[in-house]
Amino acid sequence: QQKFSHPMLSSLRYQNYIGLGRLDSGATVLQELLKENPDNQPVRLQLALLNMRQEKWQEAERLLQELQAADPQSPPVLAALIELHAKQGHEVEALRFADTLVETQKDASAYLVRAQTYSLLQKPQQAEADYRQAIALDPARPEAQMALGRFYQAQGNTGDALKTVENLLAQQPDYLPAVRLAVMLRMGSSDPAQIQQGKTLLEQSLAAHPEDVELRLFRVFSLLSEGTQPAIVAATGILEKITQDHPESAEAWRLLGQLALQQGQPGKGIDLVLRGLVSSPTNRNLLLLKAQCEGFRTPSLAIPTLNILRQLYPRDAEIILSLARVHLASC
Fold first, then answer.
1. Which tens digits make up the pLDDT trace of 45-64?
2. Which of 29, 30, 50 is nearest to 40 (CA)?
3. Is 23 left (phi over 0), alpha (psi -120 to 50) or beta?
4. Which of 21, 66, 152, 285 could pair with 161 in a Cys bridge, judged by C-beta atoms 3.0 to 4.6 Å apart?
5. Predicted confidence (pLDDT) per residue in 107-123, tens digit
6. Distance, CA of 46 to CA of 63 (rounded, Å)
7. Which of 30, 22, 85, 20 is nearest to 58 (CA)?
8. Are 285 and 254 in contact (CB under 8 A)?
9. Longest Cα pair distance anywhere in the chain, in angstroms?
10. HSE of 87, CA atoms in CB hemisphere, 13 A
11. pLDDT mean across residues, the chain
């Protein structure tokens, strides 16, 4: 039987496998493409990045070294080499490639990559300096200011994060990622005045962008924080509309399932989670909620789902602890 092969078909197979969380099968598709065309450098890079997701570091490094030999100054290859070494804690190698990227490209993108590398390696002062240099090189580029704002947020520096994002909004008032971050920062504050400003900004933003899923989810969180039955009913209505409009929204399905579980309806919770898993079959939070619903009355029923989670996320402490607790409760 002749095997039918076509790049478009292979691409569809690859995307399907990755969407289902079948990384090994996705890697096999890419390996077949490389076997047919060993000079296909984009596929070689894609396979290297997939190997990194699987923590197959040696295989990824071999592919990236082959790519670098062909093009020593390729920004995507250098960025992948930086990520490869940074994720393994190889500080010297990661920064060497990051410095090479900055020296050869000398643009905002290169400084952003090195800033993210410094941040990953717990070097906040150097990271901040590079974020600021990226902004100086391309002040009209919103991504650089957003990256600095998120950096401050990750550092727990809400004040500077808010200043950065508000400065960006003064230049580009309709830039949605900045609007979302500003709403999140204000509504996550412990200051009642800031929370009220966040709610006001949220309502204004929803009026301008009524279909934006993230803004609608912020509205849900705001309603749920009120804790009243009318607010919960209103939040449920918004979530149901989101799942109708955007069935791929895993967070909307998760929140609906969580509400069902809180109301003592684990069966309904599982049904909602399963509908969300159709589009996101390996989503961590959906699978965790599925396990919680399964173990609502009989803890041992959660073990199969928790075992799947352990395979998908072997280093996740919460999953390991959940599995241990269930085993103890089942003894």
1. 999 999 999 999 999 999 99
2. 30
3. alpha
4. 152
5. 999 999 999 999 999 99
6. 10
7. 85
8. yes
9. 71
10. 17
11. 93
